[in-house]
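Format notes (please read before filing issues)

Several people have asked whether sequences and structure tokens are stored in separate files. They are not. Every record keeps both together, in the order shown below: the sequence lines, then the token lines. Line labels are part of the format and must not be stripped during preprocessing.
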Amino acid sequence: MLTSRWIAGPADGLPGPLVATLTDYRTHRLLDLPGIARHGLSLSRLWPTLPGAVGMWLWADVGARRAGSLSVWRTEDDLHAFVRVPAHVRIMRAYRHRGTLRSRTWRLDTLDRAALRRDLETGRAA
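Then the structure lines:
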């Protein structure tokens, strides 16, 4: 699995409780994965400006045709606001029928980046 560096948001370092979400997109065709990765990187450039964004990792498992993110937010409202960002909506519409998206959201009392990263890399966050 390939993972990005931690991409800090404007709420990085603020105390909990927080909200974490894992997205896992499996493409039908391997040829779609580079475009998905490119768009994910493009969205990550917005991260430092997104209200309530604590931080995130992008990840990809090329052999399994999967890519996604593990992101941390101040509140569920902040997460939902990001889902409605026009650039995110465009990407989701473009790739909606090219694969299967799974996501999971849970609460964190405090941010333990090392534990989250371990869970991501070992598949326990899934």
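For reference, the curators noted about this record: DSSP finds four helices and six strands in the chain. Strands lie at 2-3, 7-8, 18-27, 53-61, 66-73, 99-108.
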